[in-house]
């Protein structure tokens, strides 16, 4: 069954035709943070089923234009919601995400949904394997345990599956302008959250693929400390040494709650068991940014070679936004940061990690450069709590331009100029929405030491409270 047939058979359309949810609850719930939705459900002000139906009706109305979802399970979502309501009626303790609708990037195996294998390029959308997987990934397992209602899986196009996109007509679209892309490869997840089809989605970041779509769609996107969110791939022996999964949200507290639900060691993932138990991501949320020492960089000393015509204006706007942390009691300096370009060295190490033996000289050069860059950042992070920069050096391009760009093998370092370094060095980073350039969203990146996410999220929450982004997309 292809995507279109799957969606047609999922019974979303009758929800809209029957008026379910649109008249049942206040439409303002669309833009509430997930933690407030959970509070409303747990307090009995609204049912999980009503909330689920509300967001399913929005998916039915908006996704035909945005193409964010690979598959949706209406019956399964409504059953999960009924079970959540029944659990509350029985007096059971609610989970961290009790009754909250959520979407999951399709490469994160989720029981009952298709999970196209990364790296397999279909001839067209109709040839994608839509066979549901029989069991949950660790992430999906933990989301369910936290009480989340998994509505569907989101499309992972372009950089996630292959160069370009075999079916441009069904490529995910940016809710701020549907002629443009939401980025890659967490494109569907970002589009779904930006349009208010779900309050939270799970993204995946192998070089910026959570942060970049979040920046291009006006959202918060978290690239986590490597190994903090466990994953187990039973089909491949590859260790995902640059890949992470994390939340895409509109609210920093939501991101902290999702991390509390999905982070922590699991014996099925060797990388995760190298860490102690996960920190408390919520405990520091009230600390704000007071006393933080922040360093700003335009380009880390090397990314200027990838700048395009709009980059200087984006940098200027991002730098101005960064100065906003001073209003929150932080200091913002401009240290000299002179890292060395990660490209093509990161490609050499990734190929080696994936089992493709590389020449010894190339590996030696790559790893020595990586060592120098990590040492420089470690020294900076001895002095600064976080390093600030632009997230993306461009705004979202048109679908057609995007497809043409990705057919050029030289494009990846342009796309990931400010982000890939942190995957390669295995350091966490977050993208925050800071407004618009030429009508499209742009982002501010904050990067720090391993396991600095609790403090990072506290600073993000204070920043977003001081400088909220309340505009709504064209398609929402």
SSE blueprint:
Elements: H1 3-9, H2 13-17, H3 34-42, H4 48-66, E1 69-72, H5 74-89, E2 101-105, H6 138-145, E3 149-154, H7 187-194, E4 200-205, H8 211-217, E5 220-223, E6 244-249, H9 252-262, E7 293-296, H10 311-322, E8 331-333, H11 345-353, H12 360-383, E9 386-390, H13 399-406, H14 412-415, H15 420-424, E10 429-437, E11 440-447, H16 453-466
Parallel strand pairs: 2-3, 2-4, 7-8, 7-9
Antiparallel strand pairs: 1-3, 4-6, 5-6, 5-10, 9-11, 10-11
Structural overview:
- The chain is an alpha/beta fold.
- The chain folds into 2 domains: 1-117 and 128-136 and 147-154, no CATH class; 156-470, Amidase signature (AS) enzymes.
- The chain contains 16 helices and 11 strands.
- It has helices at residues 3-9, 13-17, 34-42, 48-66, 74-89, 138-145, 187-194, 211-217, 252-262, 311-322, 345-353, 360-383, 399-406, 412-415, 420-424, 453-466, and strands spanning 69-72, 101-105, 149-154, 200-205, 220-223, 244-249, 293-296, 331-333, 386-390, 429-437, 440-447.
- Helix 4 packs antiparallel against helix 5 (74-89) and helix 11 packs across helix 12.
- The two termini are 28 Å apart.
- Residues 11-24 and 160-164 have low confidence and may be disordered.
């Amino acid at each position: 069954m292809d995507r279109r047939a799957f969606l047609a058979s999922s019974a979303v359309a009758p929800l809209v035709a029957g008026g379910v949810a649109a008249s049942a609850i206040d439409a303002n719930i669309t833009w509430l943070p997930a933690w407030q939705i959970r509070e409303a459900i747990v307090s009995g002000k609204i049912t999980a089923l009503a909330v689920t139906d509300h967001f399913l009706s929005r998916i039915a109305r908006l996704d035909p234009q945005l193409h964010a979802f690979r598959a949706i399970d209406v019956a399964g979502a409504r059953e999960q919601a009924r079970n959540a309501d029944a659990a509350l009626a029985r007096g059971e303790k609610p989970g961290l995400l009790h009754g909250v609708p959520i979407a999951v990037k399709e490469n994160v195996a989720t029981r009952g949904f298709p999970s196209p294998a990364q790296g397999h390029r279909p001839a067209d959308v109709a040839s994608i394997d839509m066979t549901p997987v029989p069991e949950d990934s660790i992430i999906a397992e933990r989301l369910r345990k936290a009480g989340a209602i998994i509505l569907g899986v989101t499309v992972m196009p372009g950089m996630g599956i292959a160069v370009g996109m075999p079916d441009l007509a069904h490529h995910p679209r940016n809710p701020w302008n549907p002629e443009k892309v939401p980025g890659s490869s967490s494109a569907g997840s970002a589009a779904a959250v930006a349009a208010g089809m779900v309050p939270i989605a799970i993204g995946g970041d192998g070089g910026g693929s959570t942060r970049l779509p979040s920046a291009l769609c006006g959202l918060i996107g978290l690239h986590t400390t490597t190994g903090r969110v466990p994953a187990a791939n039973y089909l491949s022996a590859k260790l995902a040494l640059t890949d992470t999964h994390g939340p895409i949200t509109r609210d920093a507290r939501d991101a902290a709650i999702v991390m509390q639900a999905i982070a922590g060691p699991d014996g099925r993932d060797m990388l995760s068991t190298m860490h102690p138990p996960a920190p408390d991501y919520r405990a520091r949320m009230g600390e704000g940014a007071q006393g933080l020492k922040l360093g700003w960089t335009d380009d880390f000393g090397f990314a200027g070679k990838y700048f395009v015509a709009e980059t200087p204006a984006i940098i200027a706007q991002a730098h101005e936004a960064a100065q906003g942390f001073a209003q929150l009691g932080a200091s913002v300096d401009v240290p000299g940061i002179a890292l060395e370009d990660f490209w093509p060295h990161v490609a050499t190490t990734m190929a080696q990690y994936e089992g493709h033996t590389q020449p010894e000289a190339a590996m030696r050069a790559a790893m020595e450069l990586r060592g120098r860059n990590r040492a420089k950042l470690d020294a900076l992070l001895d002095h600064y709590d976080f390093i600030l920069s632009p997230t993306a050096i461009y705004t979202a391009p048109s679908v057609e331009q995007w497809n043409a760009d990705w057919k050029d093998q030289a494009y990846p370092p342009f796309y990931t100029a400010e982000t890939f370094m942190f995957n390669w060095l295995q350091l966490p980073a977050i993208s925050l929405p800071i407004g618009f350039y030429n009508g499209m969203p742009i982002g501010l990146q904050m990067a720090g030491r391993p396991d600095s996410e609790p403090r990072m999220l506290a600073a993000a929450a204070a920043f977003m409270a001081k400088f909220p982004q309340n505009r709504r997309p064209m398609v929402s």
